[in-house]
Every structure is written in C-alpha cells, then in structure tokens.
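Dig into my protein:

:::
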Amino acid sequence: MADLWGKIKSLVSTTAPILGNAVLPGVGGTAGAMIAKLLGCDPNDPKNIEATLKNNPETLLKLKELESKNEQFLLNASIERDKIYLGDVQSARSREIEFTKATGKINWPMYILGGLVVIGFFGTIIGLFNVSLIALNKELVIYTVGGLQSAFITIIAYFFGSSKGSSDKNNLITKDKFKD
C-alpha cells in the first residue's frame, strides 16, 4: 500500500503540489482522505483512487481546486509535519549530547555500529561487482542491499544530515547578504 500512496502522491503533485506533498506515504493521511472524498472513493482503497486519477483527467482540475480552497490548511499541516520531523532529529542529537554530559564519554557502541553498517554497505557493493548475481538468490541480495542502503542513509543523515545542511545554507545566505 505504501507504494500505491507514493504513486498517488506523485500523480497529485503534478497538478496540485501542495496537496500532493501533504499525502503521507503508506497511509494517505488527511490529504489522502480529502482526495478520496473529492473523487468519491473509499480512502482505504488506494488502488481505486489511483485508477480514478489515471482514467479521468478532469479529476486533476478538481484536485487543483481542492488545493486552492484548502491551501492554508495544507500549508499549516506541512509546517506541523516539518516541526515533528525536526523535533525528532533534534531529540536524537540532544540524546547524544546528554549521554556525553552524563557519562563524560562518547557513546562508542553507536559509532562502532554506524561504522560497521557503512563498511558493510560498501563491502557489499564492492562484492557485488565481483560475484555473478545469477549464482546468488537475487531476491535475498536485493533485500539485503536495500536494508543496508536504508541503514546507511539513516546513519549519514544522523551524523551529517539536515542540521549540517541547514547550517551550511545559513552560512552561505549570511555571506551573500553581507557581501557589499
């Protein structure tokens, strides 16, 4: 189902980007329910919603109107979702700071585990260049690499993620602003 809501999100975003952005992968969320109601579909049947969007081009115009009428609500929902996400990121970073303050030590198991995942990810990728996939169980390889990739992305985002990018962006803006 997550893939179906992702497809719906993509379809809606082409015409109504704010509304499309508000569709939550996997569940649809409030925006998904709004779209389903507008189309006369069951919100628990994303296949039907997707089919209606694909087979009836007039629905895209209806979605644009829905977005226009509810733009402020959708923007507020987006802001709240971003606040929750950033709060989660900040919570993880605060946890690390508090651990270090409380114990006076760095949380080495976390760094070791992170390092092992990164080494495992690159080791697996390099290994795949040297092994014929025909001899292996392709589904198992795809599942394993996908899991390692997800963990790798999470680790990179934790250590070098949005806070670092946001800080870099702010530094660039400040430099450009006060150049003259």
